[in-house]
Amino acid sequence: MSFEKHDNPEPNENRASGGAPDPDVIVVGGGLGGLGAAFSLTRQGRRVRLLERAAAFGEVGAGIQLAPNCTRILDDYGLLDEARGLGVVPHSMVMRDAVDGTELTRLDLRDLERRYGHPYLVIHRSDLHGLLLRACRRAGVELVTGARVTGYENAGGGARVTGYENAGGGARVTLASGGTHRAGVVIAADGLHSRARGLLVDDAPVSSAYVAYRGTVPAGLPRVAGVDLGEVVVHVGPGCHFVHYGLRGGELLNQVAVFESPKALAGREDWGTPDELDAAFAGTCDFVRDGLPFMWRDKRWRMFDRDPIATWVHGRIALLGDSAHPPLQYIAQGAIMAIEDGWVLGEHVARHSAADGTVDWDAALAAYQAVRPEHCRRVLTTSRAWGELWHLGGVPRRQRNAVLRARDTHDYSFVDWLYGPTALTPDQEPPMFTPVPLSSADPAAVPEPVTGEVGGR
Ligand SMILES: Cc1cc2nc3c(=O)[nH]c(=O)nc-3n(C[C@H](O)[C@H](O)[C@H](O)COP(=O)(O)OP(=O)(O)OC[C@H]3O[C@@H](n4cnc5c(N)ncnc54)[C@H](O)[C@@H]3O)c2cc1C
């Protein structure tokens, strides 16, 4: 049974559910992170109410990559077959130089599936969001739209951000409508601009000065002819990169074009405009430039992350997903981390549930807090470093290319820490990889830069 409501904006409204008992858990935010957490906690027997500010559930953007550390969880949830049916299981991931188009390195994704026991999958965001939403409906999550949380408060007062409150052994949120919702625990999955994050830290999103354009191309168009839709490809270039892969069983080609905006670097407000898109890719190979007319030119995503924070839990209020750890997207782990957060929390709720069904929420939140921030810190810092590596120009670009060309295709030391089973305790967190310095590149494999080369930094 599921409940779906639109929040009633009456000033004296107390619960969206019109008199239903308080849930065990309130999840704020119906993105991929919030839906994943709501499903995970519901399947552990908790009554979950999800509050989403938008008038309807949905997800914008095009494709999303799901590595084995996510498909393993979808499998545990019983959702992997449906996800496979909606997406594409590619056979290879390939990195190419964006200037000359040559291949730098590749991962054999069939071999990778054998190594990690679960596939690498690419899927349309709206299909993944719809899949999780349907799973929440089937599980009985109480889904409330039009419910914008303006404050959080813990039981007995304590620090508060207007509208989130730790209260009476639980926590309370206040809505823009003036109503309040109380539960044993509040999970704030409210994204990059999280209001709840203010309970824990006074920080702001960090601009990378990079911007993304996205777009999909129907497979019947000439642009797609000759493209292997079973490959996930990134062309890396000076101050820019271009990603493409197939979606929806090969019906669509997904494209993402990302570049550093000179206007952003100059401190201008109007940064990331389509003229900058064309200029940023002017020095790239024909395949990349030919993809630019197919980007959605009326939408763009400016790339922000935040510095990692070590504490995500405040009393009975916990951050999850981008509210806790918004990354730059270069290692494609943002939504995955959010889905892992929900799975880890659900597993600890199960471990801290008594036979009578009561949960030791403080213990479950402490176990979540003990393991997730360090993993996500690693992902956030690696994503920044990976982006710098992708966007090199001049001699460093040539050194990078030489290091990547020398890499053994079946060397998994760079992804073992990511793609293996999600750690439930700090001792299960695998060691990090050891970075290879660019200076280790064989000098004989690093040609001199040519005059007028793009991005000679
Ligand atoms: C170009 C690009 C490519 C990416 N590629 C990948 C990829 O391949 N793989 C991957 O894993 N990740 C990828 N990511 C990252 C990923 O998209 C995000 O990390 C992920 O979607 C975050 O999910 P979330 O649910 O935490 O936050 P959001 O998706 O931001 O969801 C937050 C939700 O909370 C709601 N909300 C906000 N405030 C309130 C409030 N006050 N009250 C009620 N509701 C509220 C919002 O309306 C929204 O629905 C990419 C990101 C970008 C920009």
Describe this structure in words.
InterPro entries: FAD-bd, FAD-dep_Monooxygenase_BioMet, FAD/NAD-bd_sf. Residues 1-23, 438-457 are annotated as: Disordered. This is Putative monooxygenase. Residues 1-13 have a biased composition (Basic and acidic residues). The chain is α/β, with parallel strands linked by helices and 457 residues long. The chain has a domain at 25-204 and 306-435: 3-Layer(bba) Sandwich (FAD/NAD(P)-binding domain), CATH 3.50.50. Helix content is 29%, strand content 25%. Strand 2 (25-28), helix 1 (32-43) and strand 3 form a beta-alpha-beta unit. The model is unreliable at 9-17 (pLDDT under 50). Flavin-adenine dinucleotide is lined by residues 28-34, 51-54, 64-65, 148-149, 189-192, 195, 212, 256, 301, 321-322, 329, 332-336, 338. Flavin-adenine dinucleotide (FAD) is lined by residues 28-34, 51-54, 64-65, 148-149, 189-192, 195, 212, 256, 301, 321-322, 329, 332-336, 338.
